[in-house]
Amino acid sequence: MPDRDVELLAAALRRDSADLNLYANVLSVNLADSLPPRAVRVKRRRSVADRMAGREGTVTELDVALGERRLSLRVERERVVAEIHKEVRGVVLSRRQVGLDEWIDALAAALADAAAGSERARQAVERFLT
Length: 130
Fold this sequence. Notes:
about 130 residues
């Protein structure tokens, strides 16, 4: 995927990042629906009100595994913690805490790499760009 397309993808991923709760919800739904099973793991916190209303709850953690990269985004005390992991066969070789912009850039690059080898991932990238 050309660098320009990766930049467009990163811009599309940033589009809703101002409202972190909304961003985590939208991103988790889009990624979970678009990528292969088990590539995306979402953890939610459900209040009693959420359960009573039949809502899924608030996203507290989003974990995306693409190739040797695992990207984690979680909310802790109203603050976003973003991490990039290098993982081989389930073993974490490195873990680095980064800012949200760097995390989004890494996610865009990982999605672009995955799109080069997978029709399903390519469709996910196209969905973000439209």
